[in-house]
Amino acid sequence: MSLTESTKGILKRFDEKEEVIFEVNYENGIKEGEAFFYDSDGHLRTKGFYLHDKPTGTWSTYLYTPKPKLYEELSYLGQGLVRYKKTETKGMGFVEGFFLNEMAHGEWKKYNYYGELESSRSFRKGNYHGPVKIYKNNAVIIEGQFAYGDSTGNCVNFPKNRPFKS
After folding, report:
1. Alpha carbon distance 154, 166 (integer Å)
2. Fewest C-beta atoms under 10 Å: which of 28, 57, 114, 164?
3. Cβ-based burial of 164 (10 A; exposed 0-12, middle 13-18, buried ≥19)
């Protein structure tokens, strides 16, 4: 099916079992408004919103284990900047950070089940860039520095206070 400028309304796509796999609203041939994507069991997997054919606002993805649980959120902030938050399925901690033009950018943090910070890492254009810290019991135990993906020298292991080459 090809879309034309006159395409308007909700477009639904079905799988071979005739289950809906997505519903997207179109105005004048472009995605505009709510969008829903479903898994093979018919559960809502992802929901979000399009504005002028581009994702906008917060998009949410769910896991069913067996109850629905928010798994991942993408918040489109404009000019290529996206805030990202993902819940880990095993330890039930979470990771949060930013993408700029689809590459990791700025500070990313990882938290454990109890909400305690486990690590913080800085990125630029998808590469480590800036400080990298590993935490245990809310204290820094390893710290290093990167520039454009490469270590700038020694990392420090604080419990033993011995530097080691990364």
Report:
1. 6
2. 114
3. exposed
* Per-residue buried b or exposed e for 99-110, using 16+ beta carbons within 10 Å of the residue's own CB: bbeeebbbebbb
pLDDT digit string, tens, across residues 36-68: 999 988 899 999 999 999 999 999 999 887 778
Res 3 pLDDT > 70: no
Measured distance CA(70)–CA(34) in Å, rounded: 18
Do 33 and 97 belong together in one domain?
A: no
CA distance linking residue 62 with residue 92, whole number of Å: 14
d(CA 156, CA 144): 6
32 domain residue, yes or no: yes
Q: CA 166 to CA 152: how far, in whole Å? A: 9
Residue 116: which domain range? 79-166
Residue located via tokens 């400080």: 131
Q: Residue 2 pLDDT more than 90?
A: no
Which of the listed residues 34, 64, 94 is the one where a domain comes to its end? 64
Contact 116, 125 (CB under 8 A): no
Q: In this predicted model, which residue has the larger pLDDT, 120 or 160?
A: 120
